[in-house]
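Teaching soon. Invent one.


***
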Amino acid sequence: MDKSAIILAGGSSSRFGQDKGLLPLLKKPLIKHVLSATNGIVDETIIVVSSESQAENFAKVVDSNVNIVVDIDDVQSPLIGASTGFRKTRGEYSLLLPCDTPLVSTKILLLLFELCTNRNAVIPRWPNGYIEPLQAVYRTKPALEAAESALSEGKFDMRFMVDRLGGVRYISTLVLQQLDPKLRTFFNVNTSLDLKKAESMLKHTRSMFSSLGSSR
């Protein structure tokens, strides 16, 4: 097994009052929009949640071939979720994604996998130096070791894991714009307004594809 996807869905969402990944967007839970982007490009998919009750809720909406696992620690942190996913996955390379990016680009994910060959990670980086460690590809074993090293020191930020990884390749978001001009792949749904924006963008995209199809 070569490629895996790890989707982090364990964070609480006080703004919405329910699991963010289960929020309906165009009659489909957010998590399923993310899963659609990874469909066909990975050999296995893991969703990491923070409790057994979350696991039960997600199991009701995703396919049975998706593996749902519970965080190894009670502390809610992306790094805890990433560490759990790296530990459970079987792929040599692991794509890490949040559950709240419904516009994630399959083309960009494929490019990240391609660029990660013989590297320990490929991570998008903005011109101001900000990195996107939660939409990146990692070589699983070194990433797990780096994550556990950071956690053993009480560090819960993803950047502490990245700092411990050698062989990291950064790819500029300016390059990624060639595949996703407006970089909607990084659009996070954090508020009700964000959810409405995502709905509008998805409807616009579908309308464009529909127009292209009818013009042929």
Observations:
- The helical segments are 30-38, 52-59, 78-88, 106-115, 140-152, 158-163, 173-176, 192-215.
- Residues 81 and 186 are 19 Å apart (CA to CA).
